[in-house]
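Ops channel
N.P.: pipeline sanity check, posting one input/output pair.
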């Protein structure tokens, strides 16, 4: 069974394409430990059933993060994260705070 993790922060890029805007997502596990994953790793975890990621926007209203696919001419170009409430751009994910640097 997948573990539910709340995305509490993101590492953004300067890119404008929907699939390029988020580099990493992060948060805290129920045990209090911090986590941060690249967008690619988070996608893999959703696809293999390891994690279900979500944001609260507004607080108390849960929106699941899903794997979106950008296509052109019927061909899959890129996978990226967005919430169930969004069309193309991951606006809700981009609205969470920027992740602090996690030092070893």
């Amino acid at each position: 069974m997948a573990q539910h993790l709340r995305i509490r922060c993101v590492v953004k890029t300067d890119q404008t394409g929907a699939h390029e805007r988020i580099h990493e997502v992060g948060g805290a596990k129920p045990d209090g430990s911090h986590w941060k994953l690249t967008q690619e790793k988070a996608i893999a975890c959703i696809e293999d059933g390891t994690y279900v990621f979500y944001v609260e926007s507004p607080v108390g209203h849960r929106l699941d993060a899903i794997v979106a696919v950008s296509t052109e001419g019927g061909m899959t170009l890129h996978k990226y994260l967005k919430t169930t409430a969004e069309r193309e751009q991951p606006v809700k994910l981009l609205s969470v705070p920027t992740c602090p640097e996690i030092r070893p």
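N.P.: looks fine end to end. Residues 3-94 form one domain.
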